[in-house]
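User: Fold this; tokens only.

Assistant: Input:
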Amino acid sequence: MTIIVSAGIWIVTVLLIILLFFVECILTMILFPFDRKRKIIHSQCFWWADAVIGFNPYWHLQVSGLENIDKHKTYIVVANHQSLADIVVLYKTRMQFKWVAKESLFKIPFIGWCLFLTKHIRLSRGKFGSIKKVYREAAHWLRRDVSVVFFPEGTRSTTGKMNEFQNGAFKLAIQEKKPILPIVIDGTGEAIPRGSWLFKKKVTGKLTVLPLVETRDLQPSDLAFLKETVHRKMECLIETI
């Protein structure tokens, strides 16, 4: 039974990704002159995420703190990172944003094509020129009132505890005077089977949106303070979950 259910989950997930790509493709062609920020294209990921989560009987997601999101504000969103499932669950916030996503994701058929169509930000790790380009693109979107999502740990945590944060998102927040919106994700580390394609146990994930951390009065010298403040707030919540 596990084999049949797991096969069904993967087949449905792949079909949903393919469907999302074709929907985004058609809408991009129709709305190109009118949707330069790709907001309508991006919003297609909302029903897609609902479907991916809803069709997986092994996944249960609890979402809280949505009242901390002001749809009229632009944020630098920082989230901890446990697995690829984080990408799916973050769409449950119903926020407009651009990901900072590693280059390898853009090379995956259909998934990468969707990232390209929605104009997410490509990061080539280990290339200084790419990092500078990421910051320029992120600042461009922030100035056009589109939030940007960073995983400031850089790599996925395999322990359940957060890794140290890198400086980039926080330096950009101070530079652009945009508030930080911390989002804590828990439980997704086990959502996608490792070393096997079989789903063997039910997983409860939690997504919690914390109150924003304001940056408008901060100076570049406050970088370490801001980074440590956000890390501490997120870590304290993870320890209580």
